[in-house]
Amino acid sequence: MPVRHIHLVLDKERASLLRAWGSTQAEEGLIRKDLFSEREARSQIEMLYDALTKGVSASVEGDMLDPEADCWDDLRAALAEVTRERTKRGVSTGDMAAFVLALKYPLFERLGATVDDTNGRVLIEAINQFTRLIDAVSLYTTELCISERDKTIKRQRDEMMELASPVVELWDRVIAVPLVGTLDSMRAQEVMENTLSAIVEKKADIVIIDITGVVTVDTQVAQHLIRTAAAVRLMGAEAIISGISPRIAQTMVQLGVDTGEVRTRSSLRMALADAFRQLDTDVVVRNAR
After folding, report:
1. Mind listing the pLDDT tens digit for each residue in 256-280?
2. Angstrom distance (rounded) from CA 178 to CA 89
3. Class of domain 168-278
4. What are the residues facing 206 on neighbouring strands?
5. Where are the domains of the chain?
6. Which sign, positive or negative, has the C-alpha torsion 130, 131, 136, 138?
7. What was the pLDDT predicted at 86?
8. Using one digit for the tens of pLDDT, what is the confidence trace for 191-219?
9. Closest Cα to residue 66, out of 207, 286, 14, 58?
10. What pTM was computed for the model?
């Protein structure tokens, strides 16, 4: 029974295999002392090892290491925890896979020393089964690692979107949306949603969309701005687009962009002054003495 032999080796050679697993990782440059303490690394290895041993133990009766079986749930949970922590600290996908695979050959050595020479078939079957299992575990770890990195990228993108599309309250009932960089469809939708939410939250009557920091204005960007201004009007507020430089004005004319009823101003200062006039608000400047 090949699975029984694997379980006996994992159970009886635990201390030896844990040391060998760690040594193999060290030889392959997988020990990251800059990211983990020795205690943390050992704790992770032991958690995975014990979960693996538990799954193998549950597979002895059927004499088959089926990676899809429910008996590996603890191992999957342990892998998810370790992968999440290692990925967060900067371990690469390749290193994560190699981290798991490093157990393979130390186990094979001990299997060879344990199985009697007359049981060559048992040894071969044990090696084949454990290879299939550990390869499947490695693939699962890679998928987990990629998933965690995707989550990190999405979170960072969302944070950048929030920073890149802030809504600022300039005055009572006056908010500004300063745009910087490139305005694509996804970001334009984010800008619109943030702006409409701010109108309700701040009870704004005037929204100044400042494009001074926008890299280029083409037909698509212009349409995004006009649609945002239209949505602002539907919310009962007035929209002013500021930061219209001579170059941008010429570009928009050449593109045949019709701003319609949307007010435009060359600077944020002029847009704010226009907003004060619409609100019938006077700002008095007093010289400090």
Report:
1. 877 777 899 999 999 999 999 999 8
2. 34
3. alpha beta
4. 174, 238
5. 2-158, 168-278
6. positive
7. 87
8. 899 999 999 999 999 999 999 988 788 88
9. 58
10. 0.58
- Give the bridge partners for 174, in sequence order: 171, 206
Q: Could you tell me the two tokens for 132?
A: 């299939």
- Measure the CA–CA gap between 227 and 19, rounded to whole angstroms: 64
Q: How far apart are CA 12 and CA 121, in angstroms?
A: 22
Q: Is there a contact between 148 and 88 (Cβ–Cβ < 8 Å)?
A: yes
Determine the Cα–Cα distance for residues 155 and 169; give it in Å rounded to an integer: 25
Degrees to nearest 5, angle at CA 72 with 68 and 78: 125
Output the six-digit token pair for 25.
Answer: 């990782």
pLDDT tens sequence across 121-134 = 888 888 899 999 99
Place of tokens 């088959």: 64
Distance from C-alpha of 69 to C-alpha of 231, rounded to nearest angstrom: 53
Instruction: Report which residue type is found at 45.
Output: I
Decide if 2-158 and 168-278 have a common fold.
Answer: no
Architecture of domain 2-158: Orthogonal Bundle (1.10)
Bridge partners, 176 (sequence order)? 168, 208
Strands 168-171 and 174-181: antiparallel
What is the number of alpha carbons within 13 Å of residue 216 lying toward its C-beta?
A: 5
Q: pLDDT tens, 60-113?
A: 889 899 988 999 999 999 999 999 888 888 888 888 888 888 888 889 888 887
Round to the nearest angstrom and report the end-to-end CA distance of the chain: 96
